[in-house]
Write a structure and sequence with these properties.
With 375 residues, this protein is an alpha+beta fold. The protein has helices at residues 17-23, 58-69, 80-104, 150-162, 212-215, 245-249, 264-267, 270-273, 297-307; strands spanning 34-40, 43-50, 54-57, 115-117, 122-123, 133-137, 168-171, 177-178, 183-186, 193-194, 197-203, 219-226, 229-230, 255-263, 275-280, 283-289, 315-317, 342-347, 351-359. Helices cover 23% and strands 26% of the residues. The strands form 4 sheets. Strands 7-6-17-11-12-14-8 form a 7-stranded mixed sheet. β18 and β19 (351-359) form a beta hairpin.
Length: 375
C-alpha cells in the first residue's frame, strides 16, 4: 500500500530544537546517512544507517519522536521502494529531522531500543528483489580483451577509444540478488565462476529518454553490485546464438548487492568520486576509478532509458574494470572462485560488501535438460 506524507510546516534553515519540535521536517541533515533493508527481530525493516555503525529502525524512531516532540504524524515506508518513491515528496525532510534530532540528542551514545549496532542485525540487499536490473558489459577500458595477447588487446582498446559506440546492456534475474554476508553458490559441476565489482545506480523517478547531462538528477542513490559470472558456457549442440548471458549472469546468488544505498546528495558526482576495489581472500584483484570508464554514468542511464522506462528502485550497473578472473592481463593466468573464498568489495563513500563462496550440492539425476558440469 502506498503511503502519502501529511502536509508539514516549512522548516527553517537552522536546526533549533524549536523548529524541529514545530515541524518535524528539515531542509538539511545534521550528518550524512545511508538507507537499507535489515532483518530486525525477524522482520524485514527499512533502516537509516549512521556512521556505518548504527542502524535506526525508521518506523519505530519516527513514532518515538512524534510522541516526544509533538511532530505531525507521517507514515513511514513499508519497504525501500516506497521510501524511494516518497523521498522527494516530503519523506526526505522527515528523515533529515530524525537524523538531526538523534545526533543532537546524543541518541547514538545512549541508544534507545530502535537504534541497533550493525552487527546485531541482518543486513539484507537494500532492495531484496528489484523490478529491473540492467548491467553494462565491458564499460571500462581495462576490461577490454583481458584474455587476449598484449598486442591484440592494445589494438582493441584503441579501436574502442576511436569508436565508443553505445553501451551494451543486459538483464539479470531479480532472483539472483542476495545481501551482505550471504553465500554465493557455485552451481553443481561448474568450475569457472568469476567476479566483477560494479557501481550500481538506484533510480529515483520514472525515466524515459533522459539526456546524459540530466541523468544523474534521476538517480535516488548508489550501491555496490557484484556481477558474478559463470564462464563455463553452454554444452555443444542444439540452438546457439553466441554467448548465453542468462547462464553466465542470471543464476541464483549471482547478484550480491549492498550493503546499503547512499542517497545521491551524500555521494556526489560518481564521475569524480568513484573508487572501487575487489579483494579475494586478501589479494586485491580489481581497482579502478571513473577515469577508466568508456561511457559515463550519465551516458549509461541515457542509453538504458532509451530502451525501457526505468522506474524508482530499478538498478542499473555501470560496468566493471580489469582484473576479473578470466583475464590474463593482470596475473598472467585465469583464476576462478572456489568454495571457501571470501570476497570483499568496496566502493569509497558507500561501504563494503562481504560475501562467502560455497559449492552447491549435487541436485541428483535429471533428464538431460539441465546445465551440465564443465568438463
Amino acid at each position: 500500500m502506498k503511503r502519502t506524507l501529511l502536509t508539514m510546516l516549512p522548516a527553517v534553515a537552522l536546526y533549533s530544537s524549536v523548529a524541529l519540535a514545530q515541524s518535524g521536517t528539515a531542509t538539511q541533515s545534521a550528518e550524512p546517512f545511508k538507507v537499507g533493508t535489515f532483518g530486525i527481530n525477524g522482520e524485514e525493516t527499512v533502516g537509516i544507517v549512521l556512521r556505518d555503525r548504527f542502524i535506526v529502525d525508521l518506523e519505530e524512531a519516527n513514532e518515538a519522536l512524534e510522541a516526544a516532540r509533538s511532530w505531525p504524524e507521517a507514515d513511514m515506508p513499508d519497504d525501500m521502494i516506497e521510501l524511494i518513491e516518497n523521498y522527494e515528496s516530503g519523506l526526505k525532510g522527515r528523515i533529515y529531522a530524525l537524523v538531526s534530532d538523534l545526533v543532537s540528542g546524543n541518541a547514538l551514545t545512549d541508544r534507545p531500543d530502535y537504534i541497533h549496532l550493525v552487527g546485531e542485525v541482518d543486513t539484507m540487499a537494500p532492495i531484496p528483489q528489484p523490478r529491473l536490473i540492467m548491467n553494462t558489459a565491458v564499460n571500462f577500458y581495462s576490461h577490454i580483451a583481458e584474455s587476449a595477447p598484449a598486442e591484440i588487446r592494445e589494438q582493441r582498446i584503441a579501436a574502442r577509444r576511436e569508436n565508443r559506440g553505445v553501451p551494451y546492456m543486459f538483464l539479470r534475474a531479480p532472483s539472483s540478488v542476495i545481501g551482505n554476508n550471504d553465500t554465493i553458490l557455485i552451481p553443481w559441476g561448474r568450475t569457472e565462476l568469476d567476479w566483477e565489482i560494479e557501481l550500481a545506480t538506484v533510480m529515483g523517478a520514472p525515466t524515459r529518454y533522459v539526456p546524459a547531462t540530466e541523468a544523474l538528477d534521476h538517480i535516488f542513490g548508489y550501491t555496490i553490485l557484484l556481477d558474478i559470472s559463470d564462464r563455463g558456457g553452454r554444452p555443444e549442440g542444439g540452438f546457439s546464438a553466441g554467448i548465453d548471458w542468462f547462464v553466465m549472469k542470471g543464476q541464483d546468488t549471482f547478484g550480491p548487492m549492498g550493503p546499503w544505498i547512499v542517497p545521491r546528495e551524500f555521494y556526489g558526482n560518481p564521475m569524480e568520486q568513484l573508487n572501487q576495489t575487489l579483494v579475494v581472500d586478501g589479494q586485491q584483484m580489481q581497482q579502478a576509478d571513473a577515469s577508466d570508464m568508456v561511457h559515463s554514468v550519465g551516458e549509461v542511464i541515457e542509453y538504458a532509458s532509451s530502451l525501457v522506462t526505468v522506474m524508482p528502485g530499478d538498478i542499473i550497473g555501470t560496468g566493471t574494470s580489469g582484473g576479473v578472473g578470466m583475464g590474463t592481463s593482470v596475473r598472467g593466468e585465469q583464476v576462478w572462485l572456489v568454495a571457501g573464498d571470501r570476497i570483499t568489495a568496496t566502493i569509497d563513500g558507500i561501504g563494503t560488501l562481504e560475501m562467502q563462496v560455497e559449492a552447491a550440492p549435487n541436485p541428483g539425476p535429471g533428464t538431460g535438460a539441465f546445465l551440465p558440469p564443465v568438463e
